[in-house]
């Protein structure tokens, strides 16, 4: 038997760990579940749902997408790791899952032992997006000058602690010697909603999540 399926890595790395007996594949006899460890509306959804639709057509069987957001994607990964290793549960992983072991000391799963990588689906660039009402000018040079002028005044949203968006924001701060407060969310969707509403000032996100 294979281990549980670590399906897709979005943003940098994605994998699928399928725990299937080879005798039952490639003809599944029950619906496959894609566990997306983030809320709807993010980059993992942007790639995972079209993939589910395409595979559903090819396999002529239903594929269910189950969003289990929280803790930088680790809650959904923990759920997937506990599922029966029969190949019917796939984790739509992301680069965050390679970061998580250094950020969370009590993970209930081992990403290298409990999952079997299957495929990389996408490599997605990161972008800075801002609420246009928060800054006098919206070009990057002016935004950075404004943040330097008022250290601590501005904040940025990410999809959660330990995610690539979080680390991108922190690297941006270090490289440019800026003070911006980090506001972690449970995923891209909720963070972008608050960005548009003006609850946060800016956000570091993947192009796939921010572009729509």
C-alpha geometry: elongated
Give the DSSP E fraction (strand runs of 2 or more residues): 15-25%
Domain count, please report it: 2
Number of helices: 7
Largest sheet: 5 strands, parallel
Structure, explained:
By secondary structure, this protein is an alpha/beta fold. The chain has 2 domains: 4-117, Bordetella uptake gene, domain 1 (D-Maltodextrin-Binding Protein, domain 2, 3-Layer(aba) Sandwich); 126-210, 3-Layer(aba) Sandwich (D-Maltodextrin-Binding Protein, domain 2). The protein contains 7 helices and 9 strands, in the order E-E-H-E-H-E-H-E-E-H-E-H-E-H-E-H. The strands form 2 sheets. Strands 3-2-4-1-5 form a 5-stranded parallel beta sheet, with helices on both faces. A 4-stranded mixed beta sheet has the order 6-9-7-8. It is elongated.
Short description:
33% of the residues lie in helices and 17% in strands. The chain has 212 residues and is α/β, with parallel strands linked by helices. The protein has two domains: 4-117, 3-Layer(aba) Sandwich (D-Maltodextrin-Binding Protein, domain 2); 126-210, D-Maltodextrin-Binding Protein, domain 2, CATH 3.40.190.
List keywords for this structure.
7 helices; 9 strands; 212 residues; alpha/beta; D-Maltodextrin-Binding Protein, domain 2; 2 domains; elongated; 5-stranded parallel beta sheet
Task: Furnish the topology, listing elements before pairings.
Layout: E1 4-6, E2 32-36, H1 43-59, E3 63-67, H2 74-81, E4 89-91, H3 96-103, E5 115-117, E6 126-130, H4 140-149, E7 155-158, H5 164-176, E8 181-184, H6 188-197, E9 202-206, H7 207-210
